[in-house]
Design brief:
Layout (H helix, E strand, L loop, with lengths): L6 E6 L10 H20 L4 E7 L4 H10 L3 H19 L5 E4 L3 H16 L4 E10 L4 E2 L5 E4 L8 E2 L16 E5 L7 E10 L5 H10 L7 H12 L5 E2 L1 E2 L16 E2 L1 H20 L5 H4 L3 E6 L5 H15 L14 E3 L2 E2 L10 H7 L4 H10 L7 E3 L1 H31 L11 H22 L3 H22 L1 H4 L4 H21 L5 H11 L8 H4 L22 H22 L11 H5 L3 E11 L7 E6 L4 E6 L7 H4 L3 E5 L5 E3 L2 E3 L2 E2 L1 E3 L5 E3 L12 E2 L1
Parallel strand pairs: 1-2, 1-13, 2-3, 14-16
Antiparallel strand pairs: 4-5, 4-9, 6-7, 6-8, 9-10, 11-12, 14-15, 17-18, 17-20, 17-26, 18-19, 20-23, 21-22, 24-25
Helix pairs in contact: 2-3, 4-7, 5-6, 6-9, 7-9, 11-12, 12-14, 12-16, 13-14, 13-16, 14-16, 16-17
Length: about 675
């Protein structure tokens, strides 16, 4: 670990521009990275927070094919959505770039060329999967098949999303092209490989020995598993029509593999920032006094802890990451988040549906962050954290302090008198909190740090509850001045300590208290954060209660998505054996109306129906009791097979069959004629 670095370079994983940002991305990467960057800035550290859109690779090509537009149209569309969402949500990047930018193409090609000229690549002709019908080699994500490790039949050519194993497309059992559905063939093609096995000793020494005690167990464990399993050469080029050209002779029609070019995007984004700001970019990537930290999700651990460091080591002039505090996955209402299945809470939609409540989502995601294991986001928990914590604890304390100060002193901070033991103890405890929160943040324990920040609000609530200034004002006005002064110092501290976690709330609080933004260390060292005689503003609610109706609307929205997914993915039953027309003509299907319905005694599934078939009124026993109440289906128009041989069911003779099907949710549905003028007894043929 680098102690007392001169500067910090903080990177957040480049989001793919094949879809918008959802809460899984936020919880795993962008919120913790933003918290950490904001915290360091409050300490007046030299911080560079870098990100950008990842606009190459198969995911973009697949999205373009699906939407019937060009890859350029895809990246322009989603880069715009993502960029605006991050800005509106308060993710304070110093630079947000694009890998389609010329500066990135140039940087990635220069990087490749240096390694190529140094002889760091292996040039090899290998057999790759090829779709003869589409007349193209299949990149990893254009192939699905059975995972050789867990048997998942929908594994991709680069990774099984069920067991998390990293794969090569040729490893898949029964591979299929996602373009045509054809079984691909093997065809020879030339590519360049980074020989990761050459860097095994370096990675072992650097990570397994050097970072054994300071990297997160989930990160360290995955890296150890990879190294212990034996590193192999990994392709850095692909047969694609979208991406960065490979800048060497004999590589026509080939592109840089996206996971070679994407992490270089951090470097090109830094260059872009430096050009705009008139600064030198090199110290942020090449000076040993710089602390480099990658914020990523667990699916990117191998690329940031094995492949990218091997690339940097091969290049020779770059520093290596001091830490890679990867988070696990966030699930949604018990199911895995999925962009393709629309099972997500999209950031741009949240910002529209919950205006001015960015900090509520930031709080909910941080307090439930998947730091060491997968966690689950539920709308009910989101509501509870807002109502029971932000409103009831934080907002309640600030509101009471501001209201009482305005009521008793017209908003002017009173001059304190002699502090009691309780006052002294409270102020001493308050001054300790910056170090406590810092300790958690420096170890990338953001959930823990947020809890400690909320303990400052709890400290304030306890102080007010114990001291009861609203009672003291009646008997000892001088003592009340001291109580309110102490409470205002806690409020002032919160305006600083909450800023990394709740930046919009901090801005509101600073406006209400009308105080200058202090630094992080001021809370621990200054005797008065808000001095006596200072004029504060009027009370403004920091948070508002979220009602059940708002939450139910979101739950219903997800249920509609689930239903649509079931309908889309539902496979029709295979066709039955062929019959002749005469076989069908034997069936007499008529329109009928249910006149009576009652449950069959001692039978959970059966209803006894009286049906007007137009030719008679007959009894039909139907196994629909678990789906319909008798009273709800009286008068229902139905299709009836009337010439089915009678059959006794529990002593009741059933004289026909009601035709049914099931909908996307698996519920029974009547096959009934809705057209006007269709009478009972009309034949269906």
């Amino acid at each position: 670990m680098i102690q007392n670095p001169e500067r910090y370079t903080i990177t957040a994983a480049l989001p793919y521009t094949n879809g918008p940002i959802h809460i899984g991305h936020l919880a795993g990467v962008y919120v913790p990275a933003d918290i950490y960057s904001r915290y360091l800035r409050l300490q007046n550290r030299d911080v560079l927070f870098i990100c950008g859109s990842d606009e190459h690779g198969v995911a973009i090509s697949m999205k373009a094919k699906k939407e019937g537009i060009t890859p350029q149209e895809v990246i322009d569309k989603y880069d715009g959505i993502i960029r605006k969402s991050f800005s509106d949500f308060g993710i304070a990047f110093d630079n947000y770039s694009r890998t389609s930018a010329k500066i990135h193409h140039d940087t990635a090609q220069e990087f490749f060329k240096k390694l190529y000229d140094n002889g760091d690549f292996i040039e090899e002709v290998t057999e790759q999967l090829y779709d003869a019908k589409a007349d193209q080699f299949l990149a990893d994500r254009f192939v699905t098949g059975t995972c050789p490790k867990c048997g998942n039949e929908e594994a991709y050519g680069d990774q099984c999303e069920k067991c998390g194993s990293t794969l090569n497309a040729t490893d898949l059992i029964n591979p299929k092209s996602t373009i045509t559905g054809e079984t691909p063939i093997l065809k020879e093609t030339k590519h360049w490989f980074l020989p990761l096995d050459r860097y095994s000793d370096f990675l072992t020494e650097w990570i397994l020995v050097g970072h054994k005690n300071d990297w997160k167990p989930n990160v360290y464990g995955q890296v150890k598993s990879w190294i212990d399993g034996g590193l192999e050469p990994r392709a850095v080029t692909r047969d694609l029509d979208w991406g960065i050209d490979v800048p060497v002779e004999g590589a026509e029609g080939k592109k840089l593999y996206v996971w070679f070019d994407a992490p270089i995007g951090y470097i090109s984004s830094t260059k872009e920032w430096a050009q705009r700001e008139g600064k030198d970019w090199t110290p942020y990537w090449k000076d040993k006094g710089t602390k480099l930290i990658h914020f990523i999700g667990k699916d990117n651990i191998v690329f940031h802890c094995v492949i990218f460091p091997a690339m940097l080591k091969a290049e020779g002039s770059y520093i290596l990451p001091d830490n890679v505090p990867a988070n696990e996955f966030l699930n949604l209402e018990g199911n895995k988040l999925s962009t393709s299945k629309n099972w997500a809470v999209w950031l741009h939609e949240y910002l529209e549906e919950f205006p001015n409540q960015q900090d509520v989502l930031r709080y909910a995601l941080t307090s439930n962050a998947p730091e060491t294991k997968d966690n689950d986001f539920t709308w009910k928990d989101f509501q509870a954290r807002n109502n029971n914590e932000l409103v009831a604890i934080f907002g309640n304390f600030i509101n009471r302090v501001v209201v009482l100060t305005n009521k008793y002193y017209n908003g002017i901070v009173p001059q304190p008198n002699e502090f009691s033991e309780v006052d002294e103890a409270t102020l001493t405890e308050l001054k300790a909190y910056p170090a406590v929160i810092s300790s958690s943040l420096e170890r990338y324990r953001f959930r823990e740090a947020l809890g400690e920040m909320m303990n400052v609000a709890r400290l304030g609530n306890k102080y007010l509850a114990d001291e009861e200034p609203w009672k003291m004002i009646k008997t000892d006005e001088e003592r009340t001045k001291t109580q309110m002064y102490v409470a205002l110092q806690i409020a002032g501290a919160l305006s600083v300590l909450c800023e990394p976690f709740l930046p919009f709330t901090a801005a509101k609080l600073i406006k209400t208290l009308q105080c200058n933004v202090s630094t992080w260390n001021d809370v621990a060292t200054k005797s008065d954060l808000i001095p006596a005689g200072h004029q504060i503003g009027e009370a403004e609610l920091l948070f508002s209660k979220i009602e059940d109706e708002e939450i139910q609307k979101q739950i219903d929205k997800l249920e509609a998505t689930k239903t649509a997914n079931i309908a889309e993915n539902k496979k029709a039953e295979p066709q039955k054996d062929l019959i002749q027309f005469e076989d069908f003509a034997k069936m007499d299907i008529r329109v009928g109306t249910i006149l009576e319905a009652e449950k069959m005694p001692k039978a959970n599934k059966l209803l006894v129906l009286k049906v007007d078939t137009g030719i008679d009124v007959r009894t039909i026993v139907s196994g629909i009791a678990e789906s319909f109440k008798p009273e709800d289906i009286i008068g229902k128009r139905v299709s009836v097979l009337v010439n089915l041989a009678p059959r006794a069911l529990r002593g009741v003779e059933s004289q026909g069959m009601i035709l049914m099907t099931t909908n996307a949710e698996g519920k029974l549905v009547f096959i009934n004629p809705d057209a006007d003028g269709v009478g009972n007894g009309v034949t269906i043929n």
